[in-house]
Amino acid sequence: MAPIGPQRERFPPPRANGRCRAAGDPAVLAAKNATSTIPIVFSFAGDPVEQGLVVSFARPGGNLTGMAIMFAELIPKRFELLTELVPLARVFALIVNPNSPGTEPMMREMQEAARAKGVQLRVLKAGTESEIDGAFTTLVQEHVDALVVSNDTFFFSARDQLVVLAERHAVPTSYFSREFAAVGGLISYGPNVHEVYRNLGVYAGKILNGVKPADLPVQQPTTFELVVNLQTAKTLGLTIPPSILARADEVIE
Q1: Residue 194 in this model has a pLDDT that exceeds 60
Q2: Average model confidence (pLDDT) across the chain
Q3: Hey, how many other C-beta atoms are within 10 angstroms of the C-beta on 145?
Q4: DSSP label at 205?
Q5: Which stretches does DSSP call E strand in the chain?
Q6: What would you report as the CA-atom Rg of the chain, rounded to the nearest whole angstrom?
Q7: pLDDT at 128
Q8: Which of 24, 47, 136, 247 has the least CB density, counted as fewest CB within 10 Å?
Q9: Structural domain span for residue 202
Q10: What stretch of H or E contains 164?
Q11: pLDDT at 24
């Protein structure tokens, strides 16, 4: 599995070395369909039990194990942070990848959060770079006040495009990884990527030493990071509330 660090590389295919490491829901599902014997260590955005990858978190039961990010559960938190940043916003949008199996749970969580806040929600779908451009055109036409980017490996690969468009259209936007804030995104909240990959590396090492994936429980992240880009906030004419600054793990100036 490729690191998703500052080098901004797209995810490569699984390594052909007798053991498979897969990142992102489509890659994991494809790897599972390709083999039932080669050990697979995954980073999965959704619920691996619901998607049929493993029997249970405690006892995966097959040739797969790894980290379940459970991104859908993070959507309400990211939405709440955005409402604190833009308290007068009344029309929000969620951009999703319709090709991702984790899309429906994230949409449900966001819809429930928007209803609870009494604000409007627009769901925009984009599975290609040209569709991202089209989604922002729709966003402007529908007078969206703020945007949440759903958690998806495709969007991670397209982060420069997303950040540039959000800045061009002056739309306060929440992202799922600090790498977005590092290239100019307003705010991000999500698992600590280094911890996730460190844990995956530990599991890969155990499997290389003979441990079966079925005996390694599927883990979930325990460390999350909030990153705020003050320069972007200034460009958008926003003042970051002290309550967010006090909670931020990193403030980019």
Answers
A1: yes
A2: 89
A3: 17
A4: H
A5: 20-23, 40-44, 64-68, 91-96, 120-125, 146-149, 173-175, 187-191, 224-229, 250-252
A6: 18
A7: 97
A8: 247
A9: 20-69+193-222
A10: helix 159-168
A11: 60
